[in-house]
Known about the structure:
68% of the residues lie in helices and 7% in strands. By secondary structure, it is mainly α. Helix 1 crosses helix 2 and helix 2 crosses helix 4 (62-75).
Amino acid sequence: MLKKIKKEDTNEKVRKTIFELFTGFAKLYGYPKSIGEVYALLYLHEKPLSMDEIMEELKMSKGNVSMSLRKLEEMGFVKRVWISGRRKDYFTINKRFSSFREILKRKYELLDSACKSLEGTDFERLSQLKRMRNVCKKIMEVLEKIEGEEE
Length: 151
């Protein structure tokens, strides 16, 4: 006999998985776990959340939430939104891949600059840097194509 799965169990599994995913991404890129947690929370909510709501839900200090939101905004993953009749700032995720593309574009520019500077030298790993640059360029092209298909 199959075990019937409760909706609450499914919701908790989804929440846990999404939080693990985005805290893992944050740690992978050297950011604090809190940045991944804030993003995960916003990702799971359809409506924008205020800083107070984020603090309450995550049991996190105002300073930690503020720092996380600021960094996520800088990277283009989160945006502030205005809600009519409310004085607080509200936050929601940026649903497009442009933030990823911008990060890749910056990495590509840095790699391209390094490759050009090292051209003609005897640096042994120049070919590795060139491969990294080419991978960034190909991923940017794929993201641009995906964004074009979404519109």
